[in-house]
Amino acid sequence: MRELPVAGGTFVIVSNGFADGPAEALRPFLLDNGAHCVVDVSHPLVAEGPTGHRIVEYHADGRELRRTIDPKLRPPLSFGLDAFLPPRVERSTGWFGFNCIATARGIAERRLRRTERVVHWSVDFVPQRFGPGRLTQIYEAVDKFCCKRADARVDLSGAALEARDTEYSLTPANSAPSSVVPMGCWLDRTPTVDPTAASAKRVVFLGHLVPRMGVLTLLDALEVLRRDDPDVTAEIVGGGPLLDDVRARAALFPEGVVTVRGFVEDHREVESILAGGTVAAAPYTDDADSFTRWADPGKLKAYLGAGLPIVMTSTPPIAPQLEAAGSALLVQPDAGSVAAGLAKVLQDPSLWSSMHTASLAEVAQYDWPAVLTEALASMGFVF
Description:
The protein is α/β, with parallel strands linked by helices.
């Protein structure tokens, strides 16, 4: 694979949504390493979110050129426009597509000689994404095409890479070179919890408010916890279909016990909120169809970066690793088990301290600059 310099290059990043993740980390990383321009295209992701297709050009001299194309269509109807908006994009050194529609557009741009290298960077995997039927068949055909025709492909976990290879009968001989690039975090900017935070008894939750995240289970667990310890409080960050239900449930607690922030776009504010917590919760359900079974959830790295002990279920592939590192306590996906796990950490300062230290030690390997340097080098980009 021919080496392409990052310095002086122009890069296109196409993703859906605005949450912190590899697409959002890649842009400042490229600019910090001398890129001339990064074009960041963010399409709508969820029906309850904004409908605009946002295009921002970040230039090395600090200029930011912003525009939004808003057809007023919400997902999933808007997905049909993702391959065509914006109608024209700058010529680029590299094109990073964070879903198969984004990557397919990049492959077309490469065919037109408007980009030199296309990376298919998959941020999730789930079999039968849209259930049995034509829509899933079309999606899988496009995803398989991208895995074969891109110059490189990435999955966030080994479980996702293996499952995708099996689903599409992919081998090193018939697909693009593959790698696993985990979620990271910015260790140089991430605030951490105060070593005395064990006494605060504040549970924090970050995530999209959908059933598989277990946020309603967490509220049930909080009710159980407060029967023995009424000083326990909680802070919930995230938007989604269950937001109104979560706010309604939170209103049943005494005032100030449960703070529901909704979606917070500025991830630095999210990091500050997490650093004000005592213990983080990730009570994923055990739904067999949940893509969390193949994912590397970014919120877990955010929890680790804040130095928080984590009480979580075993759904994500990284769960056993975090348990072995001493940074996570694994529980069952029911209110009683979640409550018992949280109580164990909240009531034992020694345990809290050891888990806090373990989280900071574990996250050291996931600093974004190190993760992305290694990842891009494997794709033929040089610094």
